[in-house]
Amino acid sequence: MKQICGQYPYYSPDPDEPSLKSEAQSLSDQLKTELQARCAVAGVRICDVALTDLYYSSEIAQAMLVRQ
């Protein structure tokens, strides 16, 4: 998850630039694909991936506070 989510900023003021906030479905699809590839060996089938809560490291929380 960290590898995939690390490719995008949390928020982008440019509507054409992908971000975690604007690309939720795309990120879920990528996570599902990556998890399926790793779990297939065990016979597990990943049906859906959904991010429902976001927790921030202290560095990200501080940057967001500064931005506000």
Please give a structural write-up.
The chain has 68 residues and is mainly α. The protein has one domain. Helix content is 44%, strand content 0%. The protein has helices at residues 2-5, 24-39, 58-67. The longest helix is centred in the middle third of the chain and has 16 residues, at 24-39. The mean pLDDT is 82.
> What is the makeup of the main sheet?
none
Strand fraction:
under 5%
Count up the domains: 1
Round the mean pLDDT to the nearest integer and report it.
Answer: 82
Question: What would you say about this model in short?
Answer:
The protein contains 3 helices and no strands. With 68 residues, the chain is mainly alpha-helical.
Keywords:
elongated, 68 residues, 3 helices, 0% strand, mainly alpha
Structural topology:
Layout: H1 2-5, H2 24-39, H3 58-67
